């Protein structure tokens, strides 16, 4: 099977909804489904978090981080207090990060695993910057922006998780068949994860859209975060802004504001980038 046939095979499977998740994700997906209900009882959320020890540990760690309100005061030492501080929306971000990274848990090839780790570093930088940009520039909901940033490369992670089956799948790709496959597969994975349509639509437009002036949407937020992320995706870098857009953006985000946002995002990056299954 040549590379084009392999991409076609993966896309056809995804279009049929034939997407396999690592078995370790199942408990996490149950929690995600429960959190979709804003009236989910706190005790039920606690029970589901405790069913996944790594998630329980990361929930407490995130609640104690400065980026998520943990600066000052006594440290949080239990899941109940951690969920109360974080809230369900931020807990969903953590759940999504665990799902995304666990796609890498079944990668055997060392080169592909290195790409998965770089993609994770890119992801958390984009997510952290998206949260800061939402609050300070675009005015969209910061928690939604953070969540969208965490899952915006889920198609890439899924493609990496399948690449062991098809040697050379992600080698040089001048015709960009891999990007097309990643986009199609990514949308299907997001559907299977029941990601809200506005978030799914913004992620689906990332390769085709330009930033509005002034930037004011979730899509604008993700585009900016990709432009400013210090770690590039190993599966293709963001397209540079055209000169006129770059000049206009300088009036909105000057060097001082950008440096301040990057410093703020770095705190969230450290909190989100703790050890998970890879």
Describe the structure.
It is built from 13 helices and no strands. The chain is mainly alpha-helical. The protein has one domain: Orthogonal Bundle (Hypothetical protein af1432). The longest helix has 29 residues, at 110-138. It is globular and about 55 Å long. The model has no long low-confidence stretch (mean pLDDT 84). This is HDOD domain-containing protein.
Assembly category: single chain
The CATH class label is Mainly Alpha
Tally of DSSP helical segments: 13
Could you report the average pLDDT, rounded to the nearest whole number?
84
Overall number of structural domains? 1
Rg is: 19 Å
CATH topology: the name is Hypothetical protein af1432
Strand content: under 5%
Task: Give a short synopsis of this structure.
The chain is mainly α.
Describe the secondary structure blueprint for this structure.
Elements: H1 3-15, H2 26-35, H3 42-50, H4 53-63, H5 79-102, H6 110-138, H7 142-151, H8 154-163, H9 177-192, H10 197-204, H11 218-228, H12 243-252, H13 255-272
Helix pairs in contact: 1-9, 2-3, 2-5, 3-5, 4-5, 5-7, 6-7, 6-8, 6-11, 6-13, 7-11, 8-9, 9-10
List keywords for this structure.
278 residues; single chain; 64% helix; Hypothetical protein af1432; mainly alpha
